[in-house]
Amino acid sequence: MIPETKAEESWDLEIKAKNSLFDLKLDEVWHYRDLMWLFVKRDFIAQFKQTVLGPAWHVIQPILTTLMFLLVFGKIAKIPTDGIAPAAFYLAGLTIWNYFSACLTATSSTFTANAGIFGKVYFPRIVIPISVVLSNMVKFAIQFGLLVVVVTYYHFNGYPIYLSLNLLFIPLILILMAGISLGVGIIISSITTKYRDFSILLSFAVQLLMYATPVIYPLSYLKGKNYKWLIDLNPISSVVESFKYVIFGKGLVEPYSLLYSVLFMFCALFFGYLIFNRVEKSFMDTV
Fold it and tell me: Which key words tag this protein in UniProt (predicted)?
């Protein structure tokens, strides 16, 4: 048998250095889609390894948090919920908020948490944060199933919940929230390669951000108040409010706020990927 010469050899993949900051090579992400799904499976399984209740924690956690909100914000603070059953109102806000916070905190540690893998094998680094966003959709689906049960119960027991075709917008709202968390997350992950303090600051900031987001109160509660503009600056406020609106048929969804969230998502993804693209070239020297 005559061995192949160099001229006859063919390669499935040729790895080339990126020539500029805008050399994004997004087509590589599709080429590594099978690896991405492996990471999705890995992330989901790793959450429940050596646990007793497994995925049931995704149901227990929002139930316990909702009960606490009912006591503190419903009974003690007496914050209105737009005439919606308080338990359903809080659970809806928590469902979409938990997805955002889980995606943001996980993607923000992309480089530091996966340095061992990055140092051994080549693949587009952006595959990791994208897989995180996708794997957390499984968690969202579980909690959304719980929300459906609760909303259905209240709907058939005379509570004013107006189900409509607006429910078809839920996938778009989820994509918008995923895009914002991915964009902001990869920006923070790029910063934390050099400044580890940001990871500590992030966990604290996420806790505070929840209170600047209409999770425990409706936006209509702030209407006419002179500090409402601070809440409007939060790009996920309109996303959370829209999520509750399409489910309950009540809420203050302002088109300009929703447009602001969409523009913020595209800007965060664009500039986030540019920064991510630059940092991934040399992050192994600093991590």
Answer: Cell inner membrane, Cell membrane, Membrane, Transmembrane, Transmembrane helix, Transport
